Amino acid sequence: MKSGAAVLLALAALCIAPAAAREQQKPANSLHAAIAYHAASGSVGWATDRKSSRDAKVEALRQCAHEKCEVVAEVNRGCAALAREGRKHSAQKGASRQEAEARAMRNCGEKCEIAAWTCTR
Fold first, then answer.
1. Is 40 part of a structural domain of the chain?
2. Tally of domains in the chain
């Protein structure tokens, strides 16, 4: 009987180990960020390090302060940047602020300027 119990314990350990490994693989950073923008008025808002995507979007829209603002970028781990020039704009993501800004500028054009950026911790 003792050997049967040992086998059951070993099998249980094998079943538990993969679950523990999956828990360790979950991202440590679950904070969210967002950028909101209204091209016609030039209004911009952003949120950093919010607990949920919804919280980040709501805060970015609140800061944007125009009823027709739209969320143009959201990130969970990393950075986002908004480049604009007149009515033309580009919002891009990147692993760092520099990468997000470079992508936004490249997609927007040489006359554009960075209007907002945000990164999560």
1. yes
2. 1
- Structure tokens that stand for 66 in this block: 């125009």
pLDDT digits (tens, 9 = 90+) for 75-102: 999 999 999 998 799 999 999 999 999 9
Range of the domain at 105: 32-119
Question: Which two three-digit tokens encode residue 14?
Answer: 């094998």
Asked if residue 98 is part of any domain, the answer here is: yes
- CB-based contact 43:64 (threshold 8 Å): yes
- 92 is a domain residue: yes
- Tokens 């440590």 found at: 28
Rounded CA gap, 66 and 44, in Å? 9
In a domain, 71, yes or no: yes
Of 54, 63, 62, 56, nearest to 79 by C-alpha is 56
Beta-carbon count within 10 A of 116 CB: 22
Residue type, 115: A
- pLDDT computed for residue 3 by the predictor: 54
Q: Quick one: residue 87, left, alpha or beta (phi over 0 = left, psi -120 to 50 = alpha)?
A: alpha
CA distance 46 to 49: 10
